[in-house]
Specification:
The chain is an alpha/beta fold and 454 residues long. The chain contains 17 helices and 10 strands. It has a 5-stranded parallel sheet with strand order 1-2-3-4-5. A 5-stranded parallel sheet has the order 7-6-8-9-10, sandwiched between helices. The chain binds 2-acetamido-2-deoxy-beta-D-glucopyranose (6 copies). Its main location: Golgi.
Length: 454
Amino acid sequence: MAAASSLYVLHSLLTRRRDSAHLSLPLKSFFFYMPSTLALATSLLILLYISSTSNLFFIHPHLAHPEIGASLNFSQSPPLKFTDFAIRDRAIREAQDRSNFRLQMGLQGNDKELFHDRDVFLSNYKEMNTSLRIYIYPHRQDDPFANVLLPVDSEPGGNYASESYFKKVLMRSHFITEDPSEADLFFLPFSIARLRHDPRVGINGIQDFIRDYVFNISHEYSYWNRSGGADHFYVACHSIGRAAMEKAEAVKFNAIQIVCSSSYYVFSYVAHKDASLPQIWPRQGDPPNLARERSKLGFFAGSINSPVREKLLQVWQNDSEISVHFGRLNTSYSEELLRSKFCLHVKGFEVNTARIGDALYYGCVPVIIANHYDLPFQDILNWRSFSVIVATLDIPFLKKILNAIRVEEYLILRNNVFKVRKQFQWNLSPVDYDAFYLVMYELWLRRSSLRVIP
Ligand SMILES: *[C@@H]1O[C@H](CO)[C@@H](O)[C@H](O)[C@H]1NC(C)=O
Ligand SMILES: *[C@@H]1O[C@H](CO)[C@@H](O)[C@H](O)[C@H]1NC(C)=O
Ligand SMILES: *[C@@H]1O[C@H](CO)[C@@H](O)[C@H](O)[C@H]1NC(C)=O
Ligand SMILES: *[C@@H]1O[C@H](CO)[C@@H](O)[C@H](O)[C@H]1NC(C)=O
Ligand SMILES: *[C@@H]1O[C@H](CO)[C@@H](O)[C@H](O)[C@H]1NC(C)=O
Ligand SMILES: *[C@@H]1O[C@H](CO)[C@@H](O)[C@H](O)[C@H]1NC(C)=O
């Protein structure tokens, strides 16, 4: 294209010269212009030559996209220098991209924007709902480890409730089959949270217990050996689970791990094979005043147990718009979530906390500051439509980024927060598209990566 336009310029210059010659100007004047015309033409020819052999003049459309551009190898160009200005400019540019994207999506005016592709999701979901079959290794009520292997009697509660909810709901669901030959997946029903509190096991005994458990089922049944555990899965929310498979490496490397500690940095987590379980502090019903005025820009409360939180404290501790609390809160936590526009989820010792679930429940738009967190249900949900994701490096520009979100755009985000609350809700009797069903969907996506026909 550049070559063609250079040719056009050259051609029109030459024709104009010829036209001007036709104006019966004195010949002297023609010769006066001749050298400069030749010089210009030569320069243009040189440019033409360069542009046809180098890509210096082409702006490749895909290079306009920073992520893709960054993955290309610019071995000939000097290394990029990321000064503070460059970081700030990038943060602002990315915020603008997100903003335009959300405004575009918001115009659709339904729940389409919550999903990457709602139609594909809905038709897959139907198929999943009718075809997926799970076999659970059976354990009797009088098993000495019934407390660990069978579902809890009471309604699950607390920070790690997701683990117990999932098992309890799964065991009563229509996905269960008694016939292992028709199972797509096999469930290892141990509870990491319960092992941790069992005095016979404790934190230090979890690894041995898992090793023995897998030894037992692989000798008693034939299913484990068929695939080395690849069609098996377990579910765990406590971060202690990160180390639980150290003496059962086949579980770590082959089985599907549905865990709350889903960071690319966690040595036991294998992205794509494993999936993220949302950590949700279970609450029923709606909080009062969900639609109240939100006067505060941002809110965070928690302990300082990571460099990311240290940075947050260092930059924002005295700010009047973003309130960052470390240690005890004087006010009520739910009040703070209800009165803030944005609620920060900041990586601590772990990437996962119940804060995303808390923010959504109280109608506050979550801001995720946790690099490389494999976000829950991200195979299904379009996180950009109901949250703001900020790189750790951009903590100093947090206020700029949040203030750059226009009112109409914020309303779209918040509207989507209200819609997506359903997906972050556990129900003892599962409701379509709730947390239980979405975990099943994540499993379904991973079901057939390996299927052994005996
Ligand atoms: C980038 O190019 C340099 C120089 O040609 C080469 O040494 C390097 O391996 C390349 N890196 C990648 C990721 O291709
Ligand atoms: C999924 O299956 C359950 C149980 O059969 C049923 O109640 C529910 O309506 C199904 N959902 C969809 C979307 O088909
Ligand atoms: C494994 O089986 C042995 C023998 O039946 C039993 O004593 C032990 O408790 C089992 N361990 C686990 C973790 O299931
Ligand atoms: C499974 O493999 C292990 C190790 O190779 C073996 O000891 C065990 O007997 C096998 N299980 C069955 C049910 O054949
Ligand atoms: C915040 O205020 C405290 C107490 O006035 C002060 O010691 C600290 O340096 C301030 N921090 C920042 C980042 O301004
Ligand atoms: C919390 O209460 C203590 C003591 O009453 C007070 O010194 C402190 O300023 C309060 N903090 C906030 C954030 O209101």
